[in-house]
Design goal:
- The protein has about 210 residues and is mainly beta.
- The protein has one domain: Clam (outer membrane lipoprotein receptor (LolB), chain A), CATH 2.50.20.10.
- The chain is built from two helices and twelve strands.
- Strands 7-8-9-10-11-1-2-3-4-5-6-12 form a twelve-stranded mixed sheet.
- A hairpin with a 2-residue loop joins strand 7 and strand 8.
Amino acid sequence: MRRILSLLIFSSSITAFGQQVNPEEIVKSFSNKMQEIKSLSATFNFTLENLQERITDTHQGKILAKGKMFYLDLMGMEVYSDGQTKWQYIKEAKEVTISKMNVKENSFLDDPMKLFKDYDKNFKYKYVGQQNIKNRVIHEVDFFPRDLNLPYSSVKLQFDANTLEPYLIRYQGKDGNNYIIQIKNFKSNVPLRDERFKFELQKHKGVEVVDMR
């Protein structure tokens, strides 16, 4: 399920559809803009795609992020992180697994914003171009990780040229699975309390705790 979402936005100096663009400036402005965001709230459709097995499975999801903290609700699991501790809560099983954060695992659940941090050091990129989708001018960039041990070979990112909002993220998995995130609603710098990113056991009575710390 991992490698989702890590989430988004581009250039504040983008030219109109069909005109010449500077790929380096677009990607740089995108990264700077993303790192300026203090908090975000987004809803999305998450699709697991395996072309060989002809499998396509889509789920709705939600993510909240503030600094190094985040909350993710997807596929029957809620993930909370206060930047140091991670709680993975499976509603149906009434079980929560507690562990320390490990950003070295390179998975979305350990750092949703990883794609947008030091992108120039972690990725090579190719500006694919512009297209008009549903009356929106969309920029498309392909990212290729420098670390060949990562579980995916490339990440396709699409974003709105006018609103600078993310439109789509597609991870090309080495295991034959592709992970597609279609953004439905995106809001930046929303007010979020730090308590929102901690799993409160007292509010979930009867839940089995598996402490892996």
